[in-house]
Amino acid sequence: MEGGITDKIRSVLYPIKNRLFPGSREYWEERYRQGGDSGVGSYGKIAEFKAEVINEFVMKNGIDTITEFGCGDGNQLSLFDVPDYVGLDVSERAVESCKERFKHDDGKRFFLYEPENFDVVARRLKADLTLSLDVIFHIIEDDTYELYMEHLFDSANKFVIIYSDNVDTKQRYHVKRRRFTEWVDTKARGWGLTRRIKNRYPEISESDFYVYRKAP
């Protein structure tokens, strides 16, 4: 009975919250300005698991350069062992925070990600591997999602790694889950899924790793 009441309350509240949603970029900028962080996926044992997978992949595949689309507050990055890293984020506050946090590390650089203007800097950010970790389901706007996916794959010379769930759902304030594999299958020509790594902690996160490789 309690679950049914809760579902009814949510069905009323979410449409109201959705109408008040300021936009993905504005949401994250305000969240970081108010002292918020990148969320549970960037902390604790989930973050450690993600770092374990990424670090092992980098070592085994001889990855020299990485561009991450959605670096957030940098806590996840602090667990990575990567040689040459570029972090992009839609939040100016997050980018400035990362610059300060890693100011003594010459192997890490950070830039504001503006999807509509990205082509201006895209060539400078080509990398062996591009990353999208717990980002796709936070992109509410459909046109921004299209640009994000294009940039993610166009910026990679060899590999793309996505950590996300893979289902379609309606928007719930700052979350809109997407079956992104359909986009890749139809629009990322020359790319193939080589491995799916199941999440070690499904009770915390519904995401898995999807590793794509560019055809020779």
Give a quick set of tags describing it.
216 residues; alpha/beta; Rossmann fold; seven-stranded mixed β-sheet; 21% strand
Q: What oligomeric arrangement do these chains adopt? A: single chain
Helix fraction?
25-40%
Q: Which residues form runs of ≥5 with pLDDT under 50?
A: 5-10
Query: Total number of helical segments?
Result: 6
Q: What pattern of helices and strands is seen along the backbone?
A: HHHEEHEEHEHEE
The radius of gyration is: 17 Å
Describe the strand arrangement of the main beta sheet, using strand numbers. 3-2-1-4-5-7-6
Q: Would you tell me the structural class of the helices and strands?
A: alpha/beta
Assign an overall shape. Answer: globular
Fourth CATH level, the homologous superfamily: Vaccinia Virus protein VP39
Give the domain tally.
Answer: 1
Question: According to CATH, what is the topology?
Answer: Rossmann fold
Report the CATH architecture: 3-Layer(aba) Sandwich
> CATH top level?
Alpha Beta
Mean pLDDT, to the nearest integer, reads 89
Could you tell me how far the N terminus lies from the C terminus, measured between alpha carbons in angstroms? 56 Å
The total strand number stands at 7
Major sheet details: 7 strands, mixed
Percentage beta strand: 15-25%
